[in-house]
Amino acid sequence: MPLIAEDPNLAVIPDFRTEEHTAAWAHLTNDTIDDDQAAELLANLWTIQNQADRPCWATRLEEERCTAEANRRLIADEEAEHHWITLEEQEAALTEERKKNKSKYAPMKLGNYCKLFYFTNNGLKEAALSSFSADSDAFIMMTSADGSHKWIPAGATCDPKAQVLKDKNLT
Hints:
rod-shaped, 4 strands, 50% helix, mainly alpha
């Protein structure tokens, strides 16, 4: 069956009495059928064909919808599979990193790890020097020379020239 190009539900019956349809009249007219009857016969044939095309059109739309849904599901499945593969690769890389550098990670609850740099003397010194706070009302407890503790504003303790050490640069 030929592929229907337009929706037959929206099609408008043509006027078969116009000059462009005279070739069709010529085949239908004879001694008993005049031009008006031939035009009416052509309109009836067009209506019959249009009624036959409507279920075909509905079937085509349903097939296209099913195909599009299947393609969407296939793409979603491929994306999910790619996501899982990426996660597995990242986990494998992290496991390999932990095996190679066991001294960088301290075991915590349920297999979570924390880098040891934060608990070394150098890490604590850097944290003390770079205690930046976006909150102007924040206070920091400082130890004075005589060993007593004082609360001072966070903005007063930070060195504006000090650079923050990013996590990826920690060793």
